[in-house]
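ARCHIVE RECORD
Type: protein–small molecule complex
Small molecule: D-malate
Source of inputs: curated submission
Record status: active
Notes field left blank by submitter.
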Amino acid sequence: MRPAPDFIHEFVPGTSDRTLLLLHGTGGNEHDLIPFGKELDPSAALLSPRGKILENGMPRFFRRLAEGVFDLEDLRTRTHELADFVIAAAERYKIDISKIVAVGYSNGANIAASLLLLRPEILRAAILFRAMVPLIPDSMPDLSSVDIWIGAGDHDPIVPPSETQRLVDLLRRAGANVTIRFTNATHGLTDVEVRTAKHWLEELGPLGTRQ
Ligand code: MLT
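STRUCTURE (tokenized, with ligand):
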């Protein structure tokens, strides 16, 4: 029997049936986004894996060849590995697999976007801070029952507004319900957009089971 896919991770049980899948940025780890997840939704369970790739000692979720240039083969492999980990963790922690919301920042937002495009069954919703188009899928996923909130910085030197727009267009073509918010910011997060994302999550209410 093959062992269940595993990642070093932190799991915090919640009091609702929603789980936030927390995906850190380059150089982060499984602890970084826990306080952030608690702030976004104090009742949700939190599942927070550490990216397995090391770039000069900094954890990431997939390899890149240069800034913004991704190793697409590795990205595909790592996306499936992460999806399989989420399924295994859902069984282990008795998580409702139909109510998982990805919350990703930067490199974590990029692998969350890749999950949406390659393994659309894994996520019911996603909050993506500073995300790019990770890849173009061979066939378009059906994201018609997925809600996505994207937070972008007007002056982000890594993700220009045109790249954010390309991602929004791609996700909308797949049928997703996408909300986009530009903030007067660079690549770093601001309090105001965290509050806006929290409000959006509250408005989403209890998540219906996906069709
Ligand atoms: C990435 O490599 O995913 C993006 O360039 C964001 C980053 O991690 O700097």
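CURATOR ANNOTATION: The longest strand covers residues 147-153.
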